[in-house]
Amino acid sequence: MHLQFGYANPLEEPLFKHQKTLLIRGIKQIHGTPVSQKCPITPDVLYKIQTVLNLNLSLEATFWAACLVAFFSFFRKSNLLPPSVAAFDPHPHLRNCDVRLYPWGIILVVHWSKTIQYRNRTLLVPVPRIAHSSLCPWSAVTHAFKLAGVYQSPQNAVEPAFTFRESHDLKTLTYSIFNSKRKQTQINAALTACASMDTPLDEEALPLPCIAVYLVTILSFKVTGSLMLMNSIYTIHFATN
Q1: Of the residues 97, 179, 225, 226, which has the maximum number of CB atoms within 10 A of its CB?
Q2: pTM
Q3: Spatial CB neighbours of 12, under 8 Å, sequence gap ≥ 6
Q4: Is 121 left (phi over 0), alpha (psi -120 to 50) or beta?
């Protein structure tokens, strides 16, 4: 309409452009930005993970220990595992000596987090020992450390917390290895669920029940920042009963 009557386009004025930017910014602050939430890891999902793991293998035992520590400590991947061997930093990442085992459970020593960035304090995170439970993080960590040969080992004190043995070599469980193992576990768990059904498998496509199980498994394992709990009270009750 402005152009029809010979006036300048107000949308092209520098002042209006600035006001428009402020207006859009204010709308975003009021309404917020949609958050893409990930599906939680529940005790039932952990039980399914365990059924497809061979805990006599060092890599799988360490992977399982990392899963349980992340589950019960609410740790982010930036604290739990280094992105690569070269990127390991003893300041933000857990070291072997930062995982302190006691008869009653574990103390995790955290030197860096989103709220502790300047070494102004040290955070001690307790992780309980759950007797007679297959989801006991203390048992999983102790077993993984013994298989890797780093249990109460002074020479490995400053090494990454989660390591495993492969051909007699000590290797670091990086997040990329963890993620690759996680994806393979998803497939194995889905196939195991299918094998327990009476529905025959088709070479071209999985039957509908298996597809549903597979999709639920995939969604349950989508993790970016951390392994989350659906409900902490429910989880503690579930794990201790």
Answers
A1: 226
A2: 0.66
A3: none
A4: beta
What is the length of the chain? 241
Q: How many domains does the chain have?
A: 1
Coil, strand or helix: which one is 171?
strand
Residue 53 lies in a domain: yes
Whether 48 maps to a domain, the answer reads yes
Selected residue with higher pLDDT from 210 and 25? 25
**In angstroms, rounded to a whole number, what is the distance separating the alpha carbons of residues 184 and 235?**
25
pLDDT in tens, 122-169: 888 999 999 999 999 999 999 999 999 999 888 888 899 999 999 889
Residue 93 is assigned to a structural domain of this protein: yes
| CA-to-CA separations, 179 to 60, 90, 222, in angstroms, rounded | 12, 21, 10
Residue 12 within a domain: no
